[in-house]
Prior knowledge:
- Helices cover about 15% and strands about 40% of the residues.
- The chain contains 2 helices and 8 strands; from the N terminus they run H-H-E-E-E-E-E-E-E-E.
Amino acid sequence: MKTTILAACAIVGVIAAPLAVAQTDHDHMKGMDIPKPRAEKSVKKSALQPAEGAGVKIIAPKAGATITGDKVPLQFKLTKGKRGEHVHAYIDGEMVGMFKSEKGTLNGIKPGNHSLELRVTTADHNIELDATDKTSFTTK
Ligand SMILES: [Cu+2]
């Protein structure tokens, strides 16, 4: 299941790792020390495309929430705008899945503090829009 999802979004998967680093310092990306990617695949810096009316707001988990177990209920409000169709979910900077409905579950989350980011994405999965929301939560 997970493999299928990642294959469908191979391009996104490749660019996910450096983005995790970039997230912490949007304003000073030039001087960033980007670690070598795991594989030799070329790493493109992802440019989020104009939102064109799209937006997403995470409703659950709430910021700072503590969840028991490895299943994290996810809920969000998606505004598709012109091009948005679904969202990609990133945990700690790695894409873990995608959601078309506004409710779902993030499975297999290891204990600890995690960041969650949702990005509105086009139907072909290849274009992520500048329509994102982030939160953080803890699992135990
Ligand atoms: Cu997708």
